[in-house]
Amino acid sequence: MKKTEINLISDTITRPTKEMLSFMMEAEVGDDVFHSDPTVIELQKKVSSIFGVESALFFPSGTMANQTAIKLHTQPSDQLICDKYSHVYNYESGGASFHSGVSCKLIDGNRGMFKAQQLEGMIHDPDKYYLPMTRLVVVENTTNKGGGACWDYDELVRIKKVCKDNNLRYHLDGARIFNALVAKKEDPKLYGKLFDTISVCLSKGLGAPIGSLLLSSEENIQRAIRIRKLFGGGMRQVGYLAAAGIYALDHHIDRLKEDHRRAAIIGKALKESNWVDAVEPIETNIVIFQLKEGLDENKFMELLEAHEIKLISMGEGKLRVVTHLEFDDEMLDRVLEVLKKIDF
Ligand SMILES: *Cc1c(COP(=O)(O)O)cnc(C)c1O
Asked: Which of 251, 274, 307 is the last residue of a domain?
């Protein structure tokens, strides 16, 4: 990445800070397949205690953590229910059907979120043996394709009740859960007690180069260790990477509010421009906006790229900006200046 470039494509583009790197270099490591990497154990304990759950397991990616959760909760031929925007359905290469042999039933939600009532209508009666067995509900907080939207906690509680009444497991894809916790000033323990499993990413807004965790009961995590190995995710001296996660949890959570503040400012500038049709509500670090009809999003991206500003297209005339820890106030000023002067 060039020094002067402003990359707003994703919060995954961040590189470890100097401080994070030197913390990583100091890590004490061992062979984690033999459960003897002390830094991995420390990270797993740290995240379990933040969410008030029994146990946690370190994964190379959020995708593998989610896919392990799906495998943990289902049998081949079962069905899971999620929003039509959900990452597990859209962006995990069809893994639910490949790894677990399950189908996804999609809810037509709002910005990646749905109501307990909508869920109720989609659950199959287990006595109707010719229908796929509904086994699992997956929600995402914040929603990725939904523009960083945060769930209303009370709705998540209502969904939990529907799950309980219908003997369904409940998984939270919490790739950006810390953005939601910071934006809504919520206690992570409220989430820990609500879900059967939670996946958490260290490599999004928290700025670690790699790493996710799956949180659950001790019993589930013991089973997840076998599934992770089966999926090829057993790792060795990976404490160096777990150390990046520990550093991120200690230093990069509070500052997420800076990402949220800058995203809101960009959203406001976009709203004021005469080539933007609509900006979706901004709750965290993601800004999704729609160009006016007839305007070409690829041409728009080229224009910005000429000013060394990168963002990403979501298709159908929608574009996305994501703020992150390498995007500072000086860069924000440059972006605002460019947005003001481009004539499109
Ligand atoms: C990024 C992301 C994941 C996991 O992605 P990896 O790139 O595999 O770590 C899962 N869910 C959501 C909502 C995400 O944004």
From this structure: 251
CA distance 140 to 32: 29
Instruction: Give per-residue pLDDT as tens, 208-237.
Output: 999 999 999 999 999 999 999 999 999 999
Same domain flag for 189 and 263: no
What are the structure tokens assigned to 142, written together?
Answer: 């914040």
11 in contact with ligand 1, CB cutoff 6 A: no
Q: Could you tell me if 55 and 228 are in contact, meaning their C-beta atoms sit under 8 angstroms apart? A: no
- Amino acid type, 36: S
Q: What pLDDT does 1 receive?
A: 64
**Residue 27 structural domain:** 18-251
* Ligand 1 within 6 A of CB of 212: yes
Which atom of ligand 1 lies closest to the CA of 173?
11
Total domains in the fold of the chain: 2
CB of 201 shorter than 6 A to ligand 1: yes
Q: Are residues 170 and 26 in the same domain?
A: yes
Q: Which long-range contacts (CB under 8 A, 24 or more apart) does 250-253 make?
A: 251/19, 251/20, 252/205, 252/206, 252/207, 252/325, 253/178, 253/181, 253/182, 253/206
* CATH code of the domain in which 33 resides: 3.40.640.10
Residue 216 CB less than 6 A away from ligand 1? no
Dihedrals phi, psi of 287, to nearest 5 degrees: -120, 120
> pLDDT-derived band of residue 42, with 50, 70 and 90 as boundaries?
very high
Does residue 175 line the site of ligand 1, with CB under 6 A?
yes
Distance CA 97, CA 35 (A): 30
Kindly state if the Cβ of 70 falls inside 6 Å of ligand 1. Answer: no
The answer, as to whether pTM is greater than 0.70, is yes
- The CA 258 to ligand 1 mean position distance, Å, reads 21
Report which protein residue has its CA nearest ligand 1's atom 2.
Answer: 175
CA diameter of the chain: 63
- Token pair 């039509």 is at which residue? 84
CB 112 within 8 A of CB 144: yes
Same-domain check for residues 175 and 271: no
> Whose CA is closest to 40, among 235, 181, 187, 179?
235
